[in-house]
Amino acid sequence: MNSTVVVDDVAQSASFEEFMSSLRDPAFAAPIVSARRFSDALHIDLQTLAKQAGVHRNTLSRMPASESVQRFLREALRVIRAATDAHGCVKQALFWYRNEPLSDFEYRTAEQLVCGGRTEDVLRHIVLHQSRGGARGFGICAVPAA
Known about the structure:
Structural class: mainly alpha
Order of helices and strands: HHHHHHHHH
Number of helices: 9
Distance between the termini: 31 Å
Radius of gyration: 15 Å
Shape: globular
């Protein structure tokens, strides 16, 4: 089965734990996050992911277990987890992470901030706004009732 289909299916309706499990790289015995599956989940190409992680594009395919790649993926996943916990939906958290301009950060997205090494600032932002008004308080809207 295509890994993109698996990751997309999980992101659509699963818990964060199932989403994380879908990101595990089956090619390695070590517990690493698959850069390819992560990029599939966010609908970005590997070259874009390499740029975000601050590594050469070949690093993702030749050395996916490298500390620099895995560190970036773990930092991004920390923010996505916090957004999922606040909202309760992986799909909405991924959309927020990539697209929601945050007024507290000169209208940069969480993705841009994580790429710039500001994971802790984004996590504080989520916690602060969640305490003020739940998921709606930090930019993730509830899915409208059908």
